[in-house]
Amino acid sequence: MLDIYTIIFLALAVFIFIRLRSVLGQRTGRERPPYDPYSRDQARPVPPASDKVVTLPQRNMDLPGQVPPADDEAEPPRFRWEGVAPEGSPVADALDQIAQAEPGFDAKHFLVGAKSAYEMIVLAFAGGDRRALKDLLSKDVYDGFVAAISEREARGETMESRFISIETADLLDASVRQRTAQVTVRFVSKLITATRGRDGSVVDGSPDTVADVTDVWTFARDLGARDPNWKLVATEAAA
Fold it and tell me: What CATH code would you report for 36-237?
């Protein structure tokens, strides 16, 4: 038989359960989204990985990407490029134009994604991974990369590449023309690369030597497009 105290405790437990359920079952619209390793806020304190490339960010990564901030976390426009481009410069003005079209754009986050994209593309080219390259390159650049891969394969050569580090990724230029944004980045990296012939002998590069490599790459994206990815539209090897 239940005594009076047991009945009271049972009634209290039911009351508390109902109250918790009524609170926990509600959504206020202010909840934070699930963890996104490439979001602006998550990426800022993390040292550049690889991003990320991509980051690599996922294959459909923001390349280099935008993640719209919550209303209460939106930053004034200048903080999106502060430390990346001089205030009042043409580059800063162009970054502001991009941010006006897409408020989630952040130049610092862009560079994190660009470093990941750079590594992903270099390694995909070395491995002859056409599928990975297709989503990351413009048609003209893709055709050039595939032609080089095909020539290498026809000679019976294989290429090995390994990143030691990406030392810097500096934003050199930015522009917006007819709703198309372009951002140019200079990468300085340390890379081990070697090409082997049919017999396995090294015909170019060295599997034991770390080389300093500087590349200037331009990424582009149609602002407002449903596809969030930026694509590589031009490459240049710098001295």
Answer: 3.10.450.240
